[in-house]
């Protein structure tokens, strides 16, 4: 038996690994192993107040803290009978846009593009692609600043609260967001032009189902009260378990999800496939029309990268109008109307659909359940890697580590905040 190890992948968030078993030049098994121990946050919040829960659960992830906070707030407000003001809804949407821009720009420019243009990392790209590397950092900086203004901090902000906000941003801050969003549009346009020059790998292709939240009203967006599947199924968010069907596997501390017994995909690619015809902003629409190929996108997770770039552009185009709406809307904080209830919040985090579900009793959290996007994508990663490994070995290629890493990175997984390892074990 021969073991082949490569250096940890520095461009994936979290600590885990990929194990490939090859015997007599045939793939026997591929697993995504999650090494990090269980964090037990679902039990940690039991007995806490809803306000404490929001502060705890938003710390599940630094990059996606706004999505976790919004999912928690949405579920808890349903349980407590709270209907917030229009200004609160709009400000939350703006914070959500900020997170999407920050996360998508980091992944697209600095984590994914190096693979596709033939460099080991973003720093190595600087000489040939200086505008794209610097532009990606500028977009990330803007997204961080939006979250700082709306959520209170760039990481783990506390300003978004149950029933409203701690502080409403000033018109001066909102006007800066509006102006800067328009100024940055040419940067992501340039990044999308680069995509059009790339050769996209197809060694893993196979069709699957795609899941996302249904924003309603024929709108594109990142939240809703229903879950939408690409096979036409729609269910109320309170029935999320009909879609996710969580289970435990031996090789991982992370649970897995399957819809009707099969893996499914969440993330930007799922949102574009399910909702892309609703994108109406002119520049994002133009790039979507140029790059979207239904047959290819439904079979190839690599297109999640460009789907993120198109969403980023859509957010920048939407922000000026959103800011104008926020400035006109009236703000009113709202308090809880009851101390007992249940509620599930479903939002689209940058990496896909995120659920926070609660039971509140006597004003305290009695039960909680959280399902993150990467949990739902892990089985898909294994399936696509199995396809890739089989096809590449059949073609006589032995150096399959990088192609498998490219697949994993395309899903933009968030296991936590460290590095991953691909290990190929050859038998016979």
* CATH classification, class level: Mainly Alpha
Tell me, rounded to a whole number, the average pLDDT.
90
Radius of gyration: 21 Å
- CATH domain topology: Cytochrome-c3 Hydrogenase, chain B
Q: What level of helicity do the residues show?
A: 40-55%
> Could you give the count of β-strands?
13
General form? globular
Order of helices and strands: EEEHHHHHHEEHEEEHEHHHHEEEHHE
Query: For this structure, what is the CATH homologous superfamily?
Result: Cytochrome-c3 Hydrogenase, chain B
The main pleated sheet reads as: 4 strands, mixed
Strand order of the largest sheet: 1-13-2-3
What CATH architecture label applies? Orthogonal Bundle
Helix-strand makeup class: alpha+beta
In short:
The chain is an alpha+beta fold and 428 residues long. It has helices spanning 41-44, 50-57, 65-80, 86-117, 122-125, 130-151, 171-195, 241-244, 268-275, 282-291, 294-297, 304-328, 373-394, 401-410; strands at residues 2-5, 16-23, 26-34, 160-161, 164-165, 209-214, 226-229, 234-236, 264-265, 341-349, 352-361, 364-371, 420-427. It is globular.
Could you characterize what this model shows?
The structure is a single chain. The N terminus is likely disordered. Helix 3 runs antiparallel to helix 4, helix 4 runs antiparallel to helix 6 and helix 9 packs across helix 12. A hairpin with a 2-residue loop joins strand 11 and strand 12. Helices cover 45% and strands 18% of the residues. The longest helix is centred in the first third of the chain and has 32 residues. By secondary structure, it is of the alpha+beta class. The protein is globular, with a radius of gyration of 21 Å. It has a single domain, classed as Orthogonal Bundle (Cytochrome-c3 Hydrogenase, chain B), CATH 1.10.645. The strands form 4 sheets. The chain has a 4-stranded mixed beta sheet, with helices on one face. It contains 14 helices and 13 strands.
């Amino acid at each position: 038996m021969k073991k082949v190890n490569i250096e940890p992948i520095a461009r994936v968030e979290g600590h885990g690994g990929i194990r490939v078993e090859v015997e007599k030049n045939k793939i026997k098994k591929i697993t995504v192993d999650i090494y990090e121990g269980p964090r037990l946050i679902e039990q940690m919040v039991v007995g806490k107040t809803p306000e404490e829960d929001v502060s705890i659960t938003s710390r599940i992830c630094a990059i996606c803290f706004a999505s976790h906070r919004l999912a928690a707030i949405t579920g808890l407000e349903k349980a407590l009978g709270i209907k917030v003001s229009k200004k609160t809804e709009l400000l939350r949407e703006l914070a959500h846009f900020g997170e999407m821009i920050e996360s998508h720009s980091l992944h697209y420019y600095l984590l994914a593009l190096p693979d596709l243009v033939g460099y080991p990392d973003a720093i190595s790209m600087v000489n040939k692609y200086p505008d794209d590397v610097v532009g990606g950092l500028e977009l990330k900086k803007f997204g961080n600043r939006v979250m700082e203004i709306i959520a209170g901090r760039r990481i783990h902000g506390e300003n978004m609260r149950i029933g409203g906000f701690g502080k409403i941003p000033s018109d001066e801050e909102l006007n800066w967001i509006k102006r800067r969003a328009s100024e940055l549009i040419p940067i992501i346009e340039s990044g999308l032009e680069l995509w059009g020059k790339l050769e996209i790998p197809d060694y893993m292709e196979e069709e699957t189902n795609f899941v996302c939240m249904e924003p309603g009203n024929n709108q594109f967006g990142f939240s809703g009260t229903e879950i939408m599947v690409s096979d036409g199924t729609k269910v109320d968010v309170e029935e999320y378990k009909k879609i996710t069907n969580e289970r435990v596997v031996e090789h991982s501390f992370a649970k897995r999800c399957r819809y009707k017994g099969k893996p499914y995909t969440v993330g930007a690619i799922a949102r574009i496939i399910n909702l892309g015809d609703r994108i109406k902003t002119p520049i994002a629409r133009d790039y979507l029309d140029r790059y979207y190929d239904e047959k290819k996108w439904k079979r190839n997770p690599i297109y999640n990268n460009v789907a993120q770039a198109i969403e980023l552009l859509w957010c920048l185009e939407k922000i000026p109008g959103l800011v104008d709406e926020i400035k006109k809307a009236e703000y009113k904080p709202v308090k809880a109307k009851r101390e007992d209830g249940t509620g599930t919040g479903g939002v689209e985090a940058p990496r896909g659909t995120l659920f926070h579900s609660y039971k509140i009793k006597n004003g305290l959290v009695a039960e909680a359940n959280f399902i993150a996007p990467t949990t739902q994508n892990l089985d898909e990663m294994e399936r696509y890697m199995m396809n890739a490994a089989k096809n590449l070995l059949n073609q006589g290629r032995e150096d399959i580590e990088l192609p498998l890493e490219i697949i994993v990175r395309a899903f933009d997984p968030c296991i936590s905040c460290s590095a991953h390892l691909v290990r190929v074990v050859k038998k016979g």
